[in-house]
Amino acid sequence: MSEAIPIGRFAPSPSGPLHFGSLVCALASYLDMKRQGGKWLVRMEDIDPPREVKGASDHILKQLEAHGLLWDDEVLYQSSRLDNYAEIVDDLKKQDFAYNCECSRKRITELNGIYDGHCRPLNLSIQGNGTRLHLKPSQQPIEFTDQIIGHYSQHLDTQVGDFIVRRRDGLFSYQLAVTVDDHFQGITHIMRGSDLLDSTPRQIYLQKILGYSQPQYAHLPVANNELGQKLSKQNLAAGLPYGQEAINLWVALDWLKQSPPNELRQLTIGHILTWAVDHWDQTQVPAKLTLTAPEGF
């Protein structure tokens, strides 16, 4: 029997255009899959309307195309999957893996963000309430080996607590949607920013109770600005300008410690990506949670 084809993905949220930090994640995940002869998919995580910017999804796709980062299948929009998420939440509740919760964000903050299970025995209705995953008592941490960071371990019960899978406003949580859709798309390799490292044990826990296989994880350094803040739309990170795609790719490769030759700067994006796939070396990516973005980004 032949081995399954590796499948990776890039999954932006449409809250604004791509910036340098998001380009790094897209480029690295693309190169990692192409180097392995795998497929690279794009998924639009458009399930949080209050944070989304009109037209951002199309803008992001055009930016990827302009940088030569072409996906291998149809783009999956999470907004088309709401019924699937709802069905899974209902199944989790029927199996006593989830319950409705009326606790406010203020109360959770007072608990230092670690939920105490207050609503577990209350049998609350769904109206006006969120839904939390019920963590079964366990002395064992969730552990995995990250392909860049190394060993990672987290005790969900003492470091996280029962976590939200459906918000009080009816929107589904990132943790639920990303886990369900990684399985739905057959994702085998997840390469993304280290800001999501501490979310991974929650996703692994969900995978276990849903009977999903566990992908391989690799978390890249997050690009910070000079103030030490993550490049993000909230921190007013500049979007990638059109017309500088070759330079953007070269700088991203250099930032990822792939040692691109200087003469590559003058070539087309096609030539740059061909070189990058042939020379991609994940072991050279710094095993750090953050790195300062290059000047000008």
How would you characterize the overall build of this protein?
Strand 2 (39-44), helix 2 (56-66) and strand 3 form a beta-alpha-beta unit. The strands form five sheets. Strands 1-2-3 form a three-stranded parallel beta sheet. Strands 4-5-8 form a three-stranded antiparallel beta sheet. It is built from nine helices and twelve strands. It starts with 6 loop residues before the first strand and ends in a 5-residue tail after the last strand. The longest helix is centred in the N-terminal third of the chain and has 16 residues, at 20-35. It is of the alpha/beta class. It folds into two domains: 7-81 and 185-292, Rossmann fold (3-Layer(aba) Sandwich); 82-174, 3-Layer(aba) Sandwich (Rossmann fold).
Number of strands: 12
CATH architecture of the largest domain: 3-Layer(aba) Sandwich
Described by strand count, sense and barrel closure, the largest sheet is: 3 strands, parallel
Query: Which strand order spans the largest sheet, edge to edge or round the barrel?
Result: 1-2-3
The unreliable regions are none
In whole angstroms, how far apart are the ends? 46 Å
* Category by helix and strand content: alpha/beta
Q: Main traits of this protein?
A:
9 helices, 3-stranded antiparallel sheet, Rossmann fold, alpha/beta, 3-stranded parallel sheet, single chain
